[in-house]
């Protein structure tokens, strides 16, 4: 049973304001909730259908049963026949003055769509990146769409935030490579890129902000195919192509 | 002014059933509507705010003025301060028994999310592919989210459909290369791929169908980064990485 008070609390977490106030967020659907169980995050509540509940037997959190209809009404998915969880937001990692010098970090400069943010998080997880850096004005990583699109990366790849991105980049040690995508940059196919430093991806509508652009040490260009006419690529798609080029030498 | 009858017609096109019945679809927002003007598609109606209308002066279609609020209520975007268009659906191209032998075609096997479908369409446009093939059970390419995510590709890259994908693939000339993504396939970094044949991408939840899998001539694997743990990548992200690998030799 889900009490009226709990239902109200859960539904409040659809909104960023209440996610921040309560420092909590929702994880929804069978796959994401099962990923959550191994993630080491603190779970406040689990809500599951009777059919799915046995799969949550090992979880250390209060378990509430609900019909598929009730569960769907509590969450943001079009339908949910499995479960949702209310989870404590982990503290965002601070943006430190230095980086792991042997790894590449992905930084997002105003990526506003939660689905794109989640897809980029999933990419960071695929490439084993140590963290995902968010500028101000990015989508909320605890938005249910970002969490869903991350496909479990929310429990594995830490998010670092809390400082102005351009200032942080400009204060990194001088030898830190800072890469950004640019239509007039160097063709990535002609470079031997090593996965060390920071790769910054700009916002969907405005690309990189001017201040961040000034902190770049190299601009990278993804070539069109012959006859290709699209003006640009989706931000997650661009990041994917760049990351594959960074990791060609090591995989 | 938008008449009540026109408003009702426009809103009906939010639903696939009515898009099919009327063989029409919506194009929304400044960028997409401006792309539309050069696309050679038949426009039934344009609705624009007075501020945006001058940019549509050259269009050959009835222009209706509406406030930003009215316009937003007619369409599917969260806000629309510019314009929307009602456009005739172009006939989908038939799946012919042979392919342009010097080009690569992207085929989607049950890609169900309209945003993913649109992002893949945009990718096909970036790489200059001659067409996008859709199996049955794909999202509707004329879904407003697919049209928006295609970023103008809806007017440049034709969609081919109308036959069972596996049957079509199996009946292509024997020398046609048919590629698909597979976690156990060949590492794309160790291959010299030429952009000729068909690249098939599977559905978000089930990957390639068994029948399509049997028609493949080569399975391709995108390597993880060291320590990477995500089980899979988003379908558009995977397609992007594969296409970049196909076109490395020519760009």
Structure, described:
- The structure is a homodimer of 251-residue chains.
- Chain A has 251 residues and is α/β, with parallel strands linked by helices.
- Chain A folds into two domains: 4-88, Ribosomal protein L30/S12 (60s Ribosomal Protein L30, Chain: A, 2-Layer Sandwich), CATH 3.30.1330.30; 93-250, 3-Layer(aba) Sandwich (Alpha/beta knot), CATH 3.40.1280.10.
- Chain A is built from nine helices and eleven strands.
- Chain A has helices spanning 4-12, 16-22, 30-37, 68-74, 114-126, 144-149, 165-171, 210-214, 235-247, and strands at 24-28, 43-48, 63-65, 83-88, 93-94, 104-109, 132-134, 159-161, 178-187, 197-202, 218-221.
- Chain A has a seven-stranded parallel beta sheet with strand order 5-8-7-6-10-9-11, with helices on one face. Chain A has a four-stranded mixed beta sheet with strand order 1-4-2-3.
- In chain A, β7, α6 and β8 form a beta-alpha-beta unit.
- In chain A, α5 packs parallel to α9 (235-247).
- The N and C termini of chain A lie far apart (49 Å).
- The relative contact order of chain A is 0.14.
- The model of chain A has no long low-confidence stretch (mean pLDDT 95).
- Chains A and B meet through α5 and α9 of A and α5 and α9 of B.
- Chains A, B: Residues 8-79 form the MRM3-like substrate binding domain.
- Chains A, B: GO terms for molecular function: RNA binding; RNA methyltransferase activity.
- Chains A, B: InterPro entries: Alpha/beta_knot_MTases (IPR029028), MRM3-like_sub_bind (IPR053888), Ribosomal_eL30-like_sf (IPR029064), rRNA_Methyltransferase (IPR051259), SpoU_MeTrfase (IPR001537), tRNA_m1G_MTases_N (IPR029026).
- Chains A, B: Belongs to the class IV-like SAM-binding methyltransferase superfamily. RNA methyltransferase TrmH family.
- Chains A, B: Keywords: Methyltransferase, Transferase.
């Amino acid at each position: 049973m889900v009490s009226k008070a709990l239902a109200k609390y859960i539904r409040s977490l659809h909104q960023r304001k209440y996610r921040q106030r309560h420092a909590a967020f929702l994880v929804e659907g069978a796959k994401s909730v099962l990923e959550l169980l191994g993630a080491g995050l603190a779970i406040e509540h689990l809500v599951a259908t009777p059919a799915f509940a046995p799969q949550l037997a090992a979880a250390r959190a209060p378990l509430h049963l609900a019909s598929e209809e009730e569960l769907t009404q509590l969450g943001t998915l079009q339908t949910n026949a499995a479960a949702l969880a209310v989870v404590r937001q982990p503290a965002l990692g601070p943006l430190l003055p230095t980086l792991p010098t042997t790894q590449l970090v992905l930084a997002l400069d105003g990526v506003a769509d939660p689905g794109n943010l989640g897809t980029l998080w999933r990419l960071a997880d695929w490439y084993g990146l140590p963290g995902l850096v968010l500028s101000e004005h990015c989508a909320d990583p605890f938005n249910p769409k970002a969490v869903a699109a991350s496909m479990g990366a929310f429990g594995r790849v830490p998010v670092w935030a809390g400082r102005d991105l351009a200032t942080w980049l400009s204060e990194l040690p001088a030898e830190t490579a800072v890469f950004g995508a640019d239509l007039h940059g160097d063709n990535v196919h002609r470079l031997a890129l090593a996965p060390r430093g920071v790769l910054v991806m700009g916002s969907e509508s405005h690309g990189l902000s001017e201040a961040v652009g000034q902190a770049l040490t190299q601009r990278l260009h993804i070539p069109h195919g012959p006859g290709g006419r699209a003006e640009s690529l989706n931000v997650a798609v661009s990041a994917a192509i760049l990351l594959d080029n960074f990791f060609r030498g090591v995989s």
